[in-house]
Amino acid sequence: MAKSSADTPLMQQHRAIKQKYPDAILLFRVGDFYETFGEDAIIASKVLGITLTRRNNGAASSSELAGFPHHAMDTYLHKLVKAGYRVAICDQLEDPKQVKGIVKRGVTEMVTPGVATNDKLLEHNSNNFLAAIHFTDNGNGIAFLDISTGEFFIAEGNEEYIDKLLQSLRPAEVIFQRSYQKYFKEQFGSRFYTYTMDGWLFDEAFATESLLKHFQTHSLKGYGIEGMHAGVTAAGAILYYLKETEHPNLQHITSVQRMERDDFLWMDRFTIRNLELLQTGIDNGNSLLKVIDNTVSPMGARLLKRWMVFPLKDAKRINERLDAVSLLILGTETRKQLSHAIKLCGDIERLVSKIPLKKINPREVLHLAKGLQQTELIKNICGTANDAYLQRLGDALNGCHLIVEKILNEISETPPVAAGKGGVIREGIHAELDELRNIASGGREYLVAIQQREAEKTGISSLKISFNNVFGYYLEVTNSHKSKVPADWIRKQTLANAERYITPELKEYEEKITGAEGKILSIELDLYDQLLLALQDYIAPMQVNGNILATLDCLACFAENAIQYQYKKPEIHEGQELALTESRHPVIERNLPAGEQYISNDITLNPAERQIIILTGPNMSGKSAILRQTALITLMAHMGSFVPAAAARVPLTDKIFTRVGASDNLSGGESTFMVEMNETASIINNISPRSLILLDEIGRGTSTYDGISIAWSIVEHLHASPAAPKTLFATHYHELNELEEKLPRVQNYHVTNKEVGNRIIFLRKLARGGSTHSFGIHVAKMAGMPPSLIERANAILSQLEEKHVDTGASLTNRIPMPAPKMQLSIFDAHSEAFDDIRKMLSDMDINRLTPVEALMKLNEIKNLLK
Fold first, then answer.
1. ∠ CA 556-649-762 to the nearest 5 degrees?
2. Which residues does residue 257 pair with via DSSP β-bridges, in sequence order?
3. Which has the closest alpha carbon to 637: 693, 562, 552, 725?
4. Does the chain have fewer CB atoms within 10 Å around its N or its C terminus?
């Protein structure tokens, strides 16, 4: 905004504040409105759909202007932030009535996607994390903070681990050093909202000092993060960022937790996406989370999501959860009481975080107290349970009796949403407050008495007493009674049909009433502030309550799922065998048409005899579903949930890898095949003896022979690996069935089908042995392809099968097993063949070729390359 000598003091004040927040939209409070000017106004008018006008300053210069009423802040603020803008809220810091000249103004809060606390900006079932990354040459540090709940996490690791954490926790905003902008985009893409800061702010000494000062401790040892240099630096950057965005009241951030990669079952970002854990590739698709999330509180829903992306790897902790779920299944009445009580508690975590920010309203304070009362009932339920884990959770609950009693004693039964509206504090709490209320209410009664008395005295039957901000209380007389008005009444306003008067008596009572109302509000606000101050001492125990209630909510949810969906308790063991009896896919079975049963399957994998299963079968027969359900059951067991199977022996698993389905990353310059190879390479390079690997259609993104070669060599590599990871390999390449003859721990299975005439019925049942057809043409027919096209495809298929020069020669004979220390060069060997192909193509008249002749020529060319 260009400076002009004609600028008003208000605009000069606006410019000075805007210069401090150049990258934010400044909402500038002017009276009862928030105004935006210049470029901010143009953006606001587009995003919010409000009118854009121009403000003339009495000179040639003018600027754009757009505003909205201050009470509509909640409506408009979240639209700006959701659109990806940073918003600085500039309020009046003085009462305009008490000030001569321009009112002092200042930014009271900066709202960005990662530091949102407004309910309209938050999803109650999801955390709203702000992440900070500190990049170094020796590894990276990352910190996550949800200012709306006070949860604070620190981790360290390579780019792959950072990527997995970003994918899993999905921060609303990521901050990092400005010099790493290009690097961040290369590593993690452009799907995150980012903000960069000067590199000097990422300093370990500065960060450590910030954390020690915040937690008021002498060292970070108590949090287990003292040696995490890069992680601590990232955490310090977050605290600095909160300070810069005008968030000084952070008493609800009471601790910081270390996230260790080795504490959880590892799933890379491909696996989280391929298994459709959190979301699917289609709108309103059913993810695993959507199907199993039957929690009754927002706290439980948020925790369940974390349990899903960070499953346990410690058998003792997994079995603790499983045993607690078993008990809750047996105790139906207990479980229902528990869920009902948790539901009544509301979102304690987010309510508590509003206390230091002074954004908690009286109704929420009362709700918090009533929620804390429920913890006593929950504590008793857990205490009487015959389960050590549930008893331990119950013991840690704190009813916070003193503060609950104080709230219930002081806050009225039906408090307003805003403290400034009055009626917050009960009677009998403050003597002066009660006295003033009597004056105010008595004064109103007296006004009614005045009205009745004057009406009788003057004979003006329609006389009424009203109030407005200009005259205060006044007597209104219609024109038909104007002649009856006494001489001592003072006329104040003439209307079309009436006149308004005041009397000395009316003014006297007005001063009493309005004076009392102002004092009432002042005392109530003071008492409410004192209550919030007292509540701050209980932030830490209330947060512990929130975490325990979330845990109990998840356990009760698992129990409810087990009963509703006939899930069974898995056996977690230290061995290597995975044995699933009558296993089902938890998502697909919930979305079958009415009356249709999911076809269950038995799946057994063990490194000694059946390390790798080659799974073949028709398109649409359910190969991918069998792969996914194996992974999902393993994952659910490690979460501590019962599983969709009649019985399940699940070995402790440290990594689940999947390569399922095809997805292009064309915007990133990668084809389906490149994405597929990247994901597969990530798997091959990270396997361990406790890994579970699921591969679906590896190699199909390239030519048939390339694909078969890659798939074949992957199976050989996994079989030869000392880790011997358990592997399910679904494929269209029926040639891979021949590997069973050569590799002792490879077994063939197929998904069965039944042919009736020229139709195929998928039975979706696993059986030993390989399949010899893919039934692609049958699927094309089912999709509604024209009969003539289907007939032609069948004819071409028959001819191709007849003409194939190698019919009858197995791949095993053509592909020898690898010999040690032998490497072939493909280029020199094919030079002569390439010359022959080049000559053949130059001699060919492609305009005269029939489709069949073209296919035969193509086959001939392929044979020259062998």
1. 95
2. 153
3. 562
4. C
